[in-house]
């Protein structure tokens, strides 16, 4: 103020002096001085006021500038608010909240406008208001930031919710599909279970029957209504009941399964108390409601019986096989012994009989010599019998080796040998070519030796003979035959033909032991064939036989 | 030249007598040593037991060996004869009652030089012995004797 006062006094001094000079009146010097003093004080006040005024004017300008700034700020804020409102359009709740914020802001701005009017009149209040305003602005900015944050969060949250919604919808759709499939599946399985031929029984963890299908009703004899709700022990013989309870208890406690997950053979008990063997496949499953069991059971009475019968059959077969093997071994030992031991005494009888005849012929009369000759003949016959018997037994014992064999070629060799024994005989052998079969050639040769030998023998009293070996096809299979035009036999005795030691002719007419045809029959039978004969006395005989036609002993399709 | 000895291994007295008769009838007068079981046969061949100290440079021209024998059977005798260097090449003829396939297979398998079945008919037996004597004592050249 003192600087302002001095400036006033320097700048306004000339004009103040002029006015004072004009106002000096003659009242008094004293009065004049007092006026001059009062005038100076007034001038000082005026100077002060002018300075004050200038200061106020510049303060006012500053305030107005601030207000201008505020206007710009307000416009900017309103712009920002509008932008915020645009963002808020998506969410009604947010928008409402924001509108409330906007409203409060607008109210504040309104308040501020009236404040402004008042400010123009009172600077101090204005400064306060400005302070308030800047606080308000800060608060507003903070609110705005909070709003923006909330909006950001809201966007994130919203997209999350949308995603979750989408997933939920999908899940619901899938669950509906699943439920439908489940319903269809359940119906299918119910039908399946109801129509199954095996009994299906379900039970809970107490062993209490929950489900009992129709086959179970049939097998156990209980209607489902009498089984459901009862313990499984209802279906068991007493001796299985405690093990069952123990097993169930152990399984639930330890999970250690003795029957679960397996297929076992047990016994069941029907309503009428009868026991029967059954096959049980047991499974278990767990739900929120606990552990459940399902057993599939079938009555295996028939299977068991068949099994037992087959086992019995097998053991019988094994036993008879063993017996057969033992018998064969015995037969072999017997044959070996016969071969060695039975012939030795015969040699003695024959040898010493001959020694008697040679060395003591003069001491014997004709009868004595005849007896010794009969002893020798009988002995030699016995020797042949033993050899034939051994040959028959060998035919039975020997191992079969089937091979493709030319029967005609064998027959030709046999025929040639027979012819050589009696070259003088007029006999024709008619042997068919290309008779091939799968046979044991050694055994079949023995057969042909016997059959052709018989034909040779029984035509021996004829002047000329015709012996045939050939093959016909009847009933779809080959039949071989050996035919002669010799003595033949009475068919009434045909049944005895193939028995060992059976003879239809006097041994003086036709020698033989009666073992030959028995041997032939045994050989044909060992080949899986059949042998029979046709004849009439003095009209020849025909022997027929069949043989395997394929490698494996079967018959080919003709 | 030493006499050609025949070793007859035969347990049956009748067969022994008949064989000797057949040899005699066929004018085969060689010395016949008879062993009545398998052990005796080996004792003779190896100079042990009853034949201890026998001159082993003298070996039979042929051994007529029966198969069914007490103690050691014919096949076992044959096996031991073939296993010993002194008798490995000795001619051995199996002369027996049987013609069982098993006996023939085993006999030849163990190194028999021949297999003859004794016929029941003594005339046939005589003929067999005649041919055997002719072949083994006259025709056949025996292997050189190994000196012990």
What does this structure look like?
The complex is a heterodimer of chains A (558) and B (148). Helices cover 62% and strands 15% of the residues of chain A. With 558 residues, chain A is of the alpha+beta class. Chain A has four domains: 2-156, no CATH class; 196-299, 2-Layer Sandwich (Beta-Lactamase), CATH 3.30.450.20; 303-397, Helix Hairpins (Orthogonal Bundle); 400-545, Histidine kinase-like ATPase, C-terminal domain (Heat Shock Protein 90, 2-Layer Sandwich), CATH 3.30.565.10. In chain A, helix 2 (29-88) runs parallel beside helix 4, helix 9 packs parallel to helix 12 and helix 11 (441-458) packs antiparallel against helix 12 (516-526). The longest helix of chain A has 73 residues, at 123-195. The termini of chain A are far apart. Chain B is α/β, with parallel strands linked by helices. Chain B has one domain (6-138): 3-Layer(aba) Sandwich (Rossmann fold), CATH 3.40.50. In chain B, 40% of the residues lie in helices and 14% in strands. Chain B has helices at residues 13-25, 38-46, 74-83, 101-109, 122-139; strands spanning 6-9, 32-35, 62-65, 92-96, 114-117. Chain B has a five-stranded parallel beta sheet, sandwiched between helices. In chain B, strand 3, helix 3 (74-83) and strand 4 (92-96) form a beta-alpha-beta unit. The mean pLDDT of chain B is 91. Chains A and B meet through helix 8 and helix 9 of A and helix 1 and helix 5 of B.
């Amino acid at each position: 103020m003192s600087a302002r006062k001095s400036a006033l006094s320097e700048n306004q001094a000339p004009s103040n002096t002029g006015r004072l000079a004009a106002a000096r009146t003659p009242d008094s010097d004293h009065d004049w001085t007092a006026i001059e003093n009062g005038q100076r004080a007034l001038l000082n006040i005026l100077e002060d006021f002018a300075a004050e005024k200038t200061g106020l004017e510049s303060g006012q300008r500053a305030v107005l500038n601030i207000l201008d700034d505020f206007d710009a700020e307000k416009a900017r804020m309103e712009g920002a608010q509008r932008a915020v409102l645009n963002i808020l359009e998506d969410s009604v709740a947010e928008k409402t909240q924001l509108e409330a914020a906007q409203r409060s802001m607008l109210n504040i701005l309104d308040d501020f406008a009236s404040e402004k009017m008042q400010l123009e009149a009172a600077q101090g209040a204005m400064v306060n208001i400005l302070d308030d305003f800047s606080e308000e602005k800060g608060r507003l900015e903070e609110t705005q930031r909070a709003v923006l944050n909330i909006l950001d969060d809201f966007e994130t949250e919203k997209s999350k919710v949308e995603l979750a919604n989408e997933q939920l919808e999908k899940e619901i759709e899938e669950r509906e599909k699943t439920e439908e499939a489940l319903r269809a599946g359940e119906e299918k399985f119910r039908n399946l279970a109801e129509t199954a031929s095996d009994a299906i029984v379900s039970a809970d963890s107490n062993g209490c029957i929950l489900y009992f299908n129709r086959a179970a009703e049939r097998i156990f004899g209980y209607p489902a209504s009498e089984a459901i709700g009862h313990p499984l022990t209802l279906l068991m013989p007493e001796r299985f009941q405690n093990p069952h309870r123990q097993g169930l208890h152990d399984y639930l406690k330890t999970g250690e399964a003795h029957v679960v997950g397996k297929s076992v053979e047990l016994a069941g008990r029907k309503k009428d108390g009868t026991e029967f063997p059954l096959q049980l496949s047991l499974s278990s499953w767990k739900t929120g409601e606990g552990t459940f069991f399902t057993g599939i059971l079938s009555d295996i009475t028939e299977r068991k019986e068949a099994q037992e019968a087959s086992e019995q059959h097998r053991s019988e077969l094994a036993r008879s096989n063993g017996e057969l093997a033992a018998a064969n071994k015995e037969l072999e030992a017997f044959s070996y012994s016969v071969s060695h031991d039975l012939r030795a005494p015969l040699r003695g009888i024959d040898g010493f009989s001959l020694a008697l005849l040679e060395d003591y012929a003069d001491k014997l009369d004709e009868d004595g010599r005849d007896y010794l000759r009969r002893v020798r003949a009988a002995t030699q016959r016995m020797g042949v019998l033993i050899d034939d018997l051994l040959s028959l037994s060998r035919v039975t014992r020997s191992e079969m080796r089937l091979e493709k064999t030319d029967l005609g070629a064998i027959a030709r060799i046999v025929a040639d040998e027979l012819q050589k024994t009696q070259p003088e005989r007029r006999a024709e052998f008619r042997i068919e070519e290309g008779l091939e079969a799968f046979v044991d050639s050694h055994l079949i040769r023995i057969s042909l030796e016997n059959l052709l030998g018989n034909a040779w023998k029984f035509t021996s009293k004829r002047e000329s003979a015709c012996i045939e070996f050939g093959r016909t096809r009847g009933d779809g299979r080959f039949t071989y035959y050996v035919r002669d035009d010799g003595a033949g036999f009475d068919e009434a005795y045909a049944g005895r033909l193939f028995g060992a030691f059976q003879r239809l002719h006097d041994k003086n007419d036709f020698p033989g032991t009666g073992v030959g045809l028995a041997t032939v029959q045994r050989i044909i039978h060992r080949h899986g064939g059949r042998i029979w004969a046709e004849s009439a006395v003095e009209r020849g005989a025909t022997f027929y036989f069949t043989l395997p036609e394929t490698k494996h002993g079967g018959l080919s399709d003709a | 030249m030493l006499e050609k000895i025949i070793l007859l291994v035969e347990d049956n007295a009748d067969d022994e007598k008949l064989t000797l008769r057949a040899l005699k009838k066929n004018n085969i007068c060689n010395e016949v040593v008879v062993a009545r079981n398998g052990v005796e046969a080996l004792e003779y061949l190896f100079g042990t037991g009853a034949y201890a100290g026998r001159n082993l440079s003298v070996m039979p021209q042929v051994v007529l060996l029966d198969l069914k024998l007490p103690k050691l059977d014919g096949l076992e005798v044959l096996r031991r004869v073939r296993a010993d260097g002194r008798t490995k090449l000795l001619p051995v003829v199996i002369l027996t009652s049987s013609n069982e396939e098993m006996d023939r297979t085993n006999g030849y398998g163990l190194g028999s030089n021949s297999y003859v079945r004794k016929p029941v008919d003594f005339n046939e037996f005589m003929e067999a012995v005649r041919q055997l004597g002719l072949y083994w004592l006259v025709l056949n050249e025996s292997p050189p004797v190994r000196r012990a």
